[in-house]
TrEMBL record:
Xref: Gene3D superfamilies: Probable inorganic polyphosphate/atp-NAD kinase, domain 1, Probable inorganic polyphosphate/atp-NAD kinase, domain 2
Any single Pfam family the record assigns to this protein: NAD_kinase_C
Keywords: ATP-binding, Cytoplasm, Kinase, NAD, NADP, Nucleotide-binding, Transferase
Family: Belongs to the NAD kinase family.
Organism phylogeny: Bacteria, Pseudomonadati, Pseudomonadota, Alphaproteobacteria, Caulobacterales
Name assigned to this protein: NAD kinase
Function in brief: Involved in the regulation of the intracellular balance of NAD and NADP, and is a key enzyme in the biosynthesis of NADP. Catalyzes specifically the phosphorylation on 2'-hydroxyl of the adenosine moiety of NAD to yield NADP.
Reaction catalysed by this enzyme: NAD(+) + ATP = ADP + NADP(+) + H(+)
Positions annotated to bind NAD(+): 53-54, 123-124, 153, 161, 164-169
Co-factor requirement: a divalent metal cation
UniProt EC number: 2.7.1.23
Gene coding for it: nadK
UniProt organism field: Brevundimonas denitrificans
Length: 264
C-alpha cells in the first residue's frame, strides 16, 4: 500500500503592528490585530507601521539593531514613504512586496563647550541658525575645504531616501535610491548667492565648521536629535547599517522618486 506524506503547513507570517498616536492609526491597528494577530516587535518577521512619513522614520529607528523590514500604511498626513491603507489582502501584499534598502547618515557633533554627541539620520543632517543672525559655515569634503564661508540660514546633507523631503523643499535635487550619491544643499544661501549645492559620492565625509559661533549660534539635527550651539559637525554614510522598507508591487520607491521628478 502506497503511503502518502503530507507536507506541513507553512508557519504563519509573524507580524508586529505599530501605530502613531493619531486616532485613525490606533483604530486601524486594533482592527488589523484582531484580523491577523500580532507579535512583539522583537519576534516579528515584518513590522507594519500605521501613520505618516514621520512615524515611518520613528519605526525605522526602532529596528536599527534588528533590521526588521517595515511595511508602512498611510494613516497620517504625508505618505510618500507609505503604502495605501487597506485591511484586505495584507498577507498577499506582504508576500509580493518589493524592497528598498537605505543607509543612514552618522552625525558627530561637538558643541562650543566641547561636548560630543552622535546620532543617526535616515533623511538628512541639517544645520540651522538659532537667532536672527545668519549662520556662517565652512564646509570641507574629505578633509579639503570646498567652501571657505557660506552665509545662510543653514545647510544639510541628505540621503537619497531623504532627498524628496526637507532637501526638496530647499530646492535640492531628487536622487534615485541606487545612485550612491548624497545631496549637499544650502538653506537660503546669502553668500555665495549663486551656490546651489553639490552632489557628493556616498562615501564622502563632510565637515561643517561654525564661524563666529558666539554671535551666530547654530543647531544641528539628525532626524529627531537636535544639538544646540554646535561648533563642528561631521557627517558620513553608515554603509554597514541597512534598513529595509517594503512597498506594494508596482509601486516601488524608485518609481515614486521618478514620478516625483515629473510632478507639476
Amino acid at each position: 500500500m502506497r503511503a502518502f506524506v503530507t507536507e506541513p503547513a507553512p508557519a504563519p507570517l509573524r507580524i508586529a503592528f505599530s501605530a502613531s498616536d493619531r486616532p485613525e492609526a490606533q483604530a486601524a491597528r486594533e482592527r488589523l490585530v484582531a484580523r491577523y494577530g500580532s507579535v512583539e516587535p522583537g519576534d516579528a518577521q515584518v513590522i507594519v507601521a500605521l501613520g505618516g512619513d514621520g512615524f515611518m522614520l520613528e519605526t525605522l529607528h526602532t529596528v536599527m539593531d534588528q533590521r526588521t523590514p517595515v511595511f508602512g500604511m498611510n494613516r497620517g498626513s504625508v505618505g510618500f514613504l507609505m503604502n495605501d491603507f487597506e485591511e484586505e489582502g495584507l498577507l498577499e501584499r506582504l508576500a509580493g512586496a518589493g524592497r528598498a534598502v537605505i543607509h543612514p547618515l552618522q552625525m558627530d557633533a561637538w558643541t562650543e563647550a566641547g561636548q560630543a554627541h552622535s546620532g543617526l539620520a535616515i533623511n538628512e543632517v541639517s544645520l540651522l541658525r538659532q537667532t536672527r543672525q545668519s549662520a556662517k559655515l565652512r564646509i570641507s569634503v574629505d578633509g579639503r575645504v570646498r567652501l571657505e564661508e557660506l552665509s545662510c540660514d543653514g545647510c544639510m546633507l541628505a540621503t537619497a531616501a531623504g532627498s524628496t523631503a526637507y532637501n526638496l523643499s530647499a530646492h535640492g535635487p531628487i536622487i534615485p535610491l541606487d545612485s550612491r550619491v548624497l545631496a549637499l544643499t544650502p538653506i537660503s544661501a546669502f553668500r555665495p548667492r549663486r551656490w546651489r549645492g553639490a552632489l557628493l559620492p556616498h562615501q564622502s565625509k563632510v565637515c561643517f565648521e561654525v564661524l563666529e559661533p558666539d554671535k551666530r549660534p547654530v543647531s544641528a539635527t539628525a532626524d529627531d536629535l537636535e544639538i544646540r550651539r554646535v561648533a563642528r559637525v561631521e557627517v558620513r554614510e553608515r554603509r554597514d547599517i541597512a534598513l529595509t522598507m517594503l512597498f506594494d508591487a508596482g509601486r516601488s520607491f524608485e518609481e515614486r522618486v521618478l514620478a516625483e521628478q515629473f510632478a507639476s
